[in-house]
Amino acid sequence: MSESITALGTDMRSYYGRPILKEPVWQPEIPWYLFTGGLAGASSLLGLAARATGNRPLAKAGLYISMAGDAVSPVLLVSDLGRPERFLNMFRVFKVTSPMSVGSWILSASGASKVLAETVSAAFGAPLSVYTATLLSDTAIPVWHEARRELPFVFGAGAAASAGAAAAAIVAPEDAGPARRLAVGGAAVGTVAMLAMEARLGMVGEPYHQGEAGIYNLAAKLCTVAGAALLATSAKRSRLAAIAGGGLLLAGEAALRWSVFKAGFQSARDPKYVVEPQRRRKGWGLTPA
Q: Residue 118, Cβ neighbours under 10 Å: how many?
């Protein structure tokens, strides 16, 4: 025991040469679920807002995109869990302390309510867009848990950007103005929130600039900026530009989810991301480089 304490006290990079945390058990379906769930939730809200203002083409697009997201998301969850009965077991109880339990109920309620009432479905849109951020930050993975303040804004704004981008890509430019504004605004807020999160995380946020997470993070920023620029300018007049801009923005938001996903794995592998935040909270300061 004394040897392990000494090792932790000197460089904080090992614990008997092993990681302190286990890597997440989630499969590659999860980052796609993070993307489709947010897209479905925000599209439901966009569709309702468009219907309220009499924009029927945009309202129809929002409804169909939301229905597609609601249809795909459970499939991705079941695939990750391995067996359908594991997903069905989520509905045996409603556990408010479990983000996965709450999220499963929100997802199912959102999809089922579309058959009955679009307004009821839209009520689940906002929770569906951001609950996945709570799902991640509720874990012990440092880069997720320490980002619990900003991650809901990153995912919520990203969901709005995705919904606007998807609708702008399939609706005629003359009817897609609100969708373009939602996409550009969501992209701007999401980018600022992501940068603020990276800055506040400091050393804990290093995985976002390293390895696979770093590649996805860079791709997300480039695609998001390029897509938003097209939607803010040429897409007002050109259907082709709208499709290209919407596609780039959607690719950027998907890449962002992959960056967050991969950063969690990278964060769990290195004990320093677990120990340093604990030292800071105790006022011990940073370890020597």
A: 17
Mean pLDDT throughout 159-178?
A: 97
Can you tell me whether residue 265 is helix, strand or coil?
helix
| Contact call for residues 168 and 247 (beta carbons, < 8 A) | no
Strand partners, 15: 18
* Contact in structure between 41 and 126 (CB atoms under 8 Å): yes
Q: What class has domain 29-281?
A: mainly alpha
Tokens of 154: 């990153």
Domain ranges of the chain: 29-281
Give yes or no for a contact between 240 and 167, defined as CB atoms under 8 angstroms apart.
no
Residue of 127, 148, 129 whose CA lies nearest to 193: 148
d(CA 146, CA 52): 39
Q: Residue 158 is inside which H or E element, if any?
A: helix 151-170
pLDDT in tens, 186-195: 999 999 999 9
Residue 278: exposed, middle, or buried by beta-carbon count in 10 A (0-12, 13-18, 19+)? exposed
Q: Are 65 and 39 in contact (CB under 8 A)?
A: yes
Query: Residues 6 or more apart from 185 whose CB is under 8 A from it?
Result: 160, 161, 164
Q: Is 283 helix (H, G, I), strand (E, B) or coil?
A: coil
pLDDT tens digits along 209-233: 999 999 999 999 999 999 999 999 9
Residue 174 has pLDDT above 70, yes or no: yes
Lowest mean pLDDT across 7-21, 114-128, 218-232, 244-258: 7-21
CA distance 157 to 138: 20
> What would the mean pLDDT of 59-65 be, rounded to a whole number?
94
Beta bridge partners of 142: none
